[in-house]
Amino acid sequence: MAEKGLLSNETEANNKTMSVSVSNVAVQDWLRKQKESIKPWSDFLNTKKFSLPKSVAPVGARLVRNVERFQSNYVFIFLGLVAVCILTSPILLVVLATCLGACYFISFKNANNKVTVLGRELSVTHQYACVGIVSFILFWGAGAGSAVFSMLGISLFVILLHATMYNVEDDVAELFGSTVETV
Fold first, then answer.
1. How far apart are CA 8 and CA 11, in angstroms?
2. How many Å separate Cα 18 from the centre of its chain?
3. Bridge partner list, 104
């Protein structure tokens, strides 16, 4: 009976390891696709194509068109703002490094032997749960909530401003050799 429980625990641990590696592959594939579909930054930042919409009516269509066209650029703008947010907050950087170090320590420690506290063996799940609870407290104390919301607000503002002001209609007119009128 003990062997059956031991085998199921090993199988469960292997499944968890496989699911983590699969999710890493999925994230890497998603990032690779975003990187491949990124538009040239010279086109993205071409100031000659920025103009105010002539009325409120074409704003929605312009937003949708630009978000579809520059989605990958906007993702990289967002990731860049996240990096700036983390790097400009030393306390947040220390807390993040501490939490990631604790997670690395757990994975390293459990590879060699099991962790016991007060004579009880702690599972990897319990150890990560403890790190998660402590991390939440540390992030809350470091003011991560305000940093996250300010970063989200700045990202949303920058992306909406670009998507509203960038005029793709000139590109469409050049392709068809005529002017495009919005109704």
1. 5
2. 22
3. none
